[in-house]
């Protein structure tokens, strides 16, 4: 696959010239002796998407992320990021990728700002020691962005777990990135910190940055992600746009009505499957559509107070995809 050299691109503004998808794997496999951590994963990360990676502990999420970033070489299969092979092109690709993987690691006796300044001096897209003012501006901006401006001078060893997570996130955001990879970014955060991470992800998405988020918090994935990849036992069991996956089950219509028995009789006479629920009816839309079902009820004189589509919740989808085979 051909691509524009990454050395000519700086930050998110060059993303339009990049190939689509932002990252992909084919037949990805990782074995540690007799243990298969990842097996046959064909992952696709669309450019500009917010992809949520879900799976039980030990499902292979972090190992897959490490292979995406060139931190671990695959046993078999291929990895491409921005159309370039990984890990061979890691030096070319990684300056345009921000990552927080398996928790941050910093010097305990340095302050948050001092730790971040050391990270900034190692950033290929920043001027190094020759541009101290620019480095400090980048550091201060990243600290404020993750809500650590007030604690910038405190030693890292005195940070809480949530503050350490924030500092790791700040390191990933020192310069504009084309892709940001966050492995459990809300680990240790209180609800306010979780909301701030959600806002950061939304800002990155609005700027056109591709974001990959691994998380156990299904509510956060549902609130922030455009796409989902679900892993189980080292395999990719589902991937695609979140809305499509949630709509993939049997479409149903919730009808609020006090006339449940009359409603059931009318729908069944019309050949429409339905069942009674507290407060109304649940109508299956396999052989009909919502307007027709409502019209059937109205013609039968059934009072319809409200009707709305019911989508499969992410928790229900996740449970269905990852439950153990019996």
From TrEMBL:
Identify the domain of life: Bacteria
Q: Would I find Manganese among this entry's keywords?
A: no
ABC transporter domain: from which residue to which, for each copy? 23-258
Q: Which UniProt keywords apply?
A: ATP-binding, Nucleotide-binding, Transport
GO terms (molecular function) for this protein are: ATP binding
Among the Pfam families in the record, one is ABC_tran
Write out the biased-composition intervals (Low complexity): 7-20
> Which InterPro entries does this one have?
AAA+_ATPase, ABC_transporter-like_ATP-bd, ABC_transporter-like_CS, P-loop_NTPase
**Which SMART domains does this chain map to?**
AAA
- Residue ranges, annotated region (Disordered): 1-20
Q: Which family does it belong to?
A: Belongs to the ABC transporter superfamily.
What's this protein's name?
Answer: ABC-2 type transport system ATP-binding protein
């Amino acid at each position: 696959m051909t691509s524009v050299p990454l050395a000519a691109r700086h930050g998110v503004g060059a993303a339009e010239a990049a190939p689509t998808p932002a990252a992909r794997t084919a037949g990805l496999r990782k074995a540690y002796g007799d243990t298969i951590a990842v097996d046959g994963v064909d992952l696709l990360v669309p450019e500009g998407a917010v992809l949520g990676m879900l799976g039980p502990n030990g499902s292979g999420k972090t190992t897959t992320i490490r292979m995406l970033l060139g931190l671990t070489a695959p046993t078999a299969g291929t990895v491409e990021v921005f159309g370039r092979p990984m890990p061979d092109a890691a030096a070319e690709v990684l300056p345009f990728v921000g990552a927080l993987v398996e928790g941050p690691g910093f010097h305990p006796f340095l302050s948050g700002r001092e730790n971040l300044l050391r990270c900034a001096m190692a950033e290929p897209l920043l001027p190094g020691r020759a541009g101290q003012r620019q480095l400090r501006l980048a550091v201060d901006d990243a600290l404020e962005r993750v809500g650590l401006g007030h604690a910038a001078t405190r030693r890292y060893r005195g940070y809480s777990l949530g503050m350490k997570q924030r500092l790791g996130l700040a390191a990933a955001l020192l310069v504009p990135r084309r892709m940001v990879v966050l492995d459990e970014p809300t680990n240790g955060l209180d609800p306010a910190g979780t909301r701030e991470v959600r806002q950061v992800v939304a800002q990155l998405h609005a700027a056109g940055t591709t974001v990959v988020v691994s998380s156990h918090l299904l509510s956060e994935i549902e609130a922030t992600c455009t796409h989902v990849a679900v892993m189980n036992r080292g395999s990719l069991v589902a991937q695609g746009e979140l809305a499509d996956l949630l709509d993939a089950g049997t479409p149903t219509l919730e009808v609020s009505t006090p006339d449940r028995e009359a409603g059931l009789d009318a729908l069944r006479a019309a050949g429409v499957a339905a069942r009674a629920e507290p407060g109304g009816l649940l109508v299956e839309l396999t052989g009909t559509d919502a307007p027709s079902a409502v019209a059937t009820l109205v013609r039968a004189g059934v009072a319809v107070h409200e009707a709305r589509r019911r989508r499969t919740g992410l928790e229900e989808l996740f449970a269905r995809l990852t439950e153990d085979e019996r």
